[in-house]
Design a protein that fits this description.
635 residues; Rossmann fold; 6-stranded mixed beta sheet
Length: 635
């Protein structure tokens, strides 16, 4: 055992955040801590580190336990460089080195036995502490979290907030803590750095607990999920996807048990009422005592809404929404990317990823006309009317109240209509009178989305729209965008979001090239991995668009040979007459099995079928995606 929480309770101003929370963390466990914003996740970390004390309950820790905490906001004191700040994690090794250097100077004149023995002890300790490799480890981790060699000499007091957080992550990973407490570790990492961190944690021997809204990240780095809901903690074995299935099964079982118990209580109370004064009074009193001692099962509480972001109807744009030809973007004389050839059709969703500073937000600002293109052509289609969501939320006026801010996009709207619309974004009653400056990041994000959606634009340009949203709100946004009839262009590091939304991907690579792919993030990731392993094989793959000879050029394969066309047509026919039909039949069969009474009474069997149904539905979605991509190639 590393630590154990027993019946922990914590309240603020009479508001109970945690109620009788109990769980244990053991060596080597990889845990995800999930729950809505305000559920008490960060409070738990504060209790574990001793910053706060519980109102009730007990926290038991292993003797000498070393906790490593990564907070959402990291700062550094004094004037030190990025490199020395990372190396400061090895304070024990530095102490050993300093003593060894002092003894070496002493041994120039003193060869006594105690001095030689002490030096030998220090050499052994230095070796056991990986003293010969610690500098190389530090440099590898700095590169992993996104610090290039030429940034190692930067002073920490000149770093941005995101850079400080990444440096804090590096120092923590080097700290040799017994357990890591990571609060939103992916917040300031680009996709490459997140993937590096996933790989690092997958091979990490020490236990950790992660608070994160990044569902893809939780899937890849955890083998246990603890959910905080209504002040209580429930533990689930498996990663985030398995947690979703297990939670639904557990809730269904709990609701059945609650209804069965409620029926039993009603029948027992009726028996007591009829027999308390009759011949069976002894039995009636016995049953009354039984009811008084009965541990009552709670009904399953309906989940709090993550918001209703259902988008309003929009004017139909032309078929070709956006076309760029050899587009070059950047600032002044600094070109960030060039040779961009993008074709986006009505109803499509372009997902944009890439490292920090590679040009993602610059591209968006170029598309909306805030920055001029440095070369090439950019053309919007007919009847396009775009709305822009800035990740900095800089379109919000801090002095406005919420309802006045929404009125900026609808000056003539009635208060009743605006209040009703804001309620879909979880702003109720007096909430609409709050000043923008007093809102949390999540609330500001929801308000900015409310403004964008109310404006009825037929092209949405979104810069990190999920940044300030918790998981239920992200899921609500994904559902709304999935039904949106317009066109979407979005920069995002949320790969789960891109899997559900994107129909084509644009990736700004570290070498300055830009890759274009028809599909969502997972499909792009797999294609890119295959391309790196075998470029010739990836370029000839029938479901991948040929890469341009110029690595800075993004273009679709436009000239297909007769043989290629025949292969595509054959595959379309197989999909329509065989593969999709069979996959949909599989879904229907599993759905029928889910409703079988015998299956519903067997949690293990129900879990197995639910997992199979999830896989089958993903298979149908994948086949339809392939079918649409092939049809697009023939246009």
């Amino acid at each position: 055992m590393l630590f154990r929480l027993s019946n922990i309770s914590k309240s603020y101003g009479g508001n109970a955040i945690l109620r009788d929370v109990s769980f244990q963390v053991n060596p080597g466990e990889k845990i995800g801590l999930v729950g809505r914003n305000g559920a008490g996740k960060t409070t738990l970390f504060n209790l574990l580190t001793g910053r706060e004390a519980p109102d009730a309950g007990e926290i038991v820790k292993m003797r000498g336990l070393k906790l490593g905490l990564l907070e959402q906001h990291v700062d550094f004191a004094g004037k030190e460089t990025v490199h020395t700040a990372a190396l400061s994690a090895f304070e024990d090794i530095h102490d050993i080195e300093n003593e060894m250097r002092a003894l070496e100077r002493q041994m120039e004149t003193d060869h006594s036995e105690p001095i030689l023995e002490r030096y030998a002890e220090l050499q052994t300790a230095f070796e056991q502490a990986d003293g010969f490799t610690y500098a190389a480890r530090a440099e590898a981790i700095l590169q992993g979290v996104g610090f290039s060699n030429d940034q190692w000499g930067m002073e920490t007091n000149t770093l941005s907030g995101g850079q400080k957080n990444r440096l804090g992550m590096a120092r923590l990973l080097l700290s040799n803590s017994d357990v890591l407490l990571l609060d939103e570790p992916t917040n300031h990492l680009d996709v490459d750095a997140v993937e590096w961190l996933e790989e690092y944690l997958t091979n990490y021997a020490t236990a950790y607990v992660i608070i994160s809204h990044d569902r893809y990240f939780l899937d890849r780095t955890t083998d246990r999920i603890i959910e905080l809901e209504n002040g209580r903690a429930v533990s689930y074995k498996g990663n985030y996807s398995k947690f979703l299935v297990e939670r639904e099964l557990r809730r269904e079982q709990q609701q059945r048990e609650y209804e069965n118990q409620r029926s039993m209580i009603a029948k027992t109370e009726e028996f007591i009422r009829r027999n308390l004064e009759g011949q069976k009074t002894k039995q009636a009193k016995s049953r009354r005592n039984m009811l008084e001692r009965l541990d009552r099962i709670e009904a399953v509480r309906s989940e709090k809404s993550g918001g209703n972001f259902k988008l309003r109807q929009v004017e139909r744009a032309g078929n070709n929404v956006l076309t760029t030809e050899e587009l070059a973007i950047g600032y002044g004389s600094k070109v960030l990317a060039s040779g961009l050839n993008v074709s986006l059709h009505r109803g499509g969703a372009l997902g944009i990823i890439g490292g920090n500073g590679t040009g993602k937000t610059t591209l968006l600002k170029t598309l909306i006309g805030e920055i001029r293109e440095l070369g090439g052509k950019l053309a919007w289609g007919t009847k396009t009317n775009f709305g822009y969501y800035s990740q900095n939320l800089d379109d919000l006026h801090e002095g406005n109240d919420i309802i006045s801010e929404l009125r900026r996009v609808a000056p003539m709207a009635e208060n009743v209509e605006l209040r009703s619309f804001l309620a879909r974004f979880l702003f109720f009653g007096e909430d609409v009178e709050k000043r923008v400056r007093d809102l949390s990041g999540g609330e500001k994000g929801r308000l900015a989305l409310a403004k964008l959606i109310y404006s009825q634009k037929n092209v949405l340009i979104l810069d990190e729209p999920t940044n300030h949203l918790d998981i239920p709100a992200r899921e609500a946004l994904e559902s709304a965008l999935g039904e949106y009839p317009g066109t979407i262009i979005t920069v995002s590091h949320d790969r789960y979001f891109l899997d559900r939304i994107a129909t084509q991907m644009l990736s700004f690579e570290a070498d300055g090239s830009v890759l274009d792919y028809a599909g969502n993030y997972s499909e792009f990731h797999d294609w890119k991995a295959a391309r790196l392993r075998s470029p010739e094989h990836a370029a000839s793959s029938p479901d991948v668009e040929a890469a341009a000879e110029d690595t800075n050029t993004v273009s679709r394969a436009s000239n297909l040979s007769k043989n290629q066309i025949q292969k595509i047509e054959n595959r379309i026919r197989d999909l329509e007459t065989r593969d999709i039909v069979k996959a949909e039949d599989d879904v229907a069969k599993l759905q029928a099995e889910m409703t079988d009474a015998a299956v519903a009474a067997d949690p293990e069997k129900l879990r197995e079928i639910a997992e199979g149904l999830n896989s089958a539905e993903l298979r149908v979605k994948s086949l339809y995606g392939e079918w649409e991509d092939l049809l697009e190639q023939l246009k």
